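Lab meeting prep.
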Amino acid sequence: MVKRRYISSRMLQEGMVIDQSILDSTGRTLVARKTVLDDYLINSLRKLNITGVYIREGEEEQEIETKNISPATLKTIEREMKNDRVKVTLSESVKERVATGMQFMFNNPKDAEMMNAANSISGELMKAISQNDAIAVDISALKVSDEYTFKHSVDVASIAMIMAKQCNMSDKSVYQIGLAGLLHDLGKSEIPNEILNKPGRLTDEEFAVIKKHPIYGYNLIKDKTELSPEILLGVLQHHEKINGKGYPMGVTDNKLTPFARLLSIADIYDALVTERPYKKGFTPRDSVEMIMAMTGELDIKFIKVFMESVILYPVDSYVKLSNGELGKVVENVVGYPTRPKVVGLTTGKVYNLYEDTNCASIIIV
């Protein structure tokens, strides 16, 4: 596997390998992923006001090969393995359409066609959920773009839609919360890029500007008659907290809509796990535990629904345990995404992280 790092465009050097595709406003590829950068391309990126990109940084651990696992361990893996619940999956062609639509939305937030793009993307996500009756989401498999804002908005929409389905909301509500998720950060299109993509810590003044993006987003869509009040308030309130310590208005529990309560959890989780210019991403386990610790700020009912909706370590994936052993995930437990059943590749031991008290001190690292 290849390491990747986000780097400011000012720090790019000839010979670096870009680990993302750069698209224009129509979705055409300007610079392909894995391209070796030269001075001309670096200067072109800067002229396009692209403030930073992901670059490749050599090799990580070698991929684990099945031939190195003993026959007895392979039999244990086969015996213990149980397929995950049906997850949302997007084909590559759908990902391309979604990425192009997201780029259009954020580059043209005031365009009359913006809502057509949003409805088209929400429709694609709804179809992906409905086609195979998906009831869970593996965020790592959804990636539609290397551009954070686009990826984040689709992640939030997808998580929110699955959570809404878990809550037995109507298909109309599932679709609408998908729209709210896609639109929730639209107001960031009004924030100067030098603040939005600043590689260092924001000043208090700069953070005050960032905190206005829910209002900017609300103002961009408030006159669109096809959007329900739930969608509008979901966008406006997605950073509010039930204890009144959120923003932009500091409203409390009784004024927060269900859409906002649900979106805030999806938004926080995806922001925590994602690497940004100014921070490393937290592990899925740490991110979930941080959300579980926010019961004074987030709706505990929706925290529980979130825990039942996400798959952090898909069955058949490799993980490293805190006791040093590498393992393969063979079963997930609904509601306990950080505690799957794992088979150790060296010992063949079954680590039932959810039920076995002997595994209580072992975590996935």
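Slide two material, second protein:
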Amino acid sequence: MRVFTENHKFHYEIENLTRVFFPNEKIEIIKGGFYGDKTEPFIITRVEEKNGGTRLFCSLSSEGVNIEREKTLVPVSFDDETERSLAVLLFDVLSEYTGITPPWGILTGVRPIKLFRKLTEELGAEGAEEYFKGRLLVNDEKIRLSSVTEKNEKRIIETSTPSSFSLYVSIPFCPSRCSYCSFVSQSVEKSLKLIEPYVELLCREIEMTGKLAAELSLELQSVYIGGGTPTVLSPEQLRAVMGAIVRSFDMSGCREFTVEAGRPDTVTNERLTAIKECGADRISINPQTLNDEILRSIGRNHTADEFYKAYETARRCGFDHINTDLIAGLPNEGSESFRKTLDNITALAPKSITVHTLSMKRSSRLTAQGVELLRRDAAAAEDMHRYCSEILPALGYEPYYLYRQSRMVGNLENVGWSQKGSEGIYNVFIMDETHSILGCGAGATTKLKQPDGAYIERIFNYKYPYEYLKGFDEMLRRKDRIRAFYNEYGF
């Protein structure tokens, strides 16, 4: 789809909103007035100053169909209002053309709850809801979800202080690559020889990062070991990495220590015993679905029965807080199958359940194979989330964090649900950008948050394990910026 942006600078928002309606098409943004072949579909967005006001125009032409909208803002509008109003016109045009009304309206950002909180502080709770509905076109169901989630997030955010931080450790290896995955991870069979040297250098990076945190008197709130699949490491390697964390950081104030045991086919008694003995109190075992046919189709080399066995092993090893991840909108999985999965998961009474929506990232194998996001998939995914909103609160679960990604089926969301008091606080801190996240390992990003401010600075580690090994010394030098950053703010 060609999109012409004439006389305005809102290219990023226009592109993202167009992609909501055409998630698997190439969106070509062309700056300036229309030119080229009129027989191919195209969109025109235009802003012009006229008669003391700002005239907005949007049109779509495709196969003999022509839809137009225009609006004049008087007096001349500020950029933010012009951008919002132009997005509303585009939303109306695309909704009429496709017959689809995305539930999050013109919102395309990752963090809608952060925006809802800002509006609540400025306008009050009722004013924030009115703004979401009237000016951003968010539907009532998502407004209610936002309101409840924001209240639960806020209680966690308020426990953070200017000296607080969290630690993320990356294990970018998996037993196999799932068809929907776009994370920086490598299958074990292709990278086995890298794991041992990777663990050795990772422990060195952890130790160096711990020294910096101690020097700056930073206070550790939460630890998250993710990936990839951390439980591809041997028990000895897990002890090495977790031991380095415990030795290098002051754990006395750490409120949560999570390890992703994401793939049930990697969960063993020996690995979980090592994780438990090293201090983790929260793990995530992620079936994604309990439909064996769907599991095979997406490249998950485990069965529902293996998930149940892994879950029982975790219980025997003494884990009280187990999170389970599910995905709404998997290819060919209907609402009935998802509902059965959720019912079976809740029968286990895990402390928390995270419900993701399938995101068709460009680097995932599903997108490369040309799988399309059909309207029936979007409707099914929306029904799945609606079922969660009906069933989970009745069983004592509340939404405590929420975020969104591009190319999500139905333009929906990912929601963390938990029993009261069992929220995953790291998830809240990173999504709200509450405080600094110090990242270790390949693909990790250190996000330095200005104490008592909003400014965020990022330090990127090398993406891939082989880059990490080759450029390790340079990467450590980058981390010197942590000291300089905090010194600038009086630490």
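Talking points for slide two:
The CA atoms of residues 158 and 193 lie 44 Å apart.
The longest strand covers residues 53-62.
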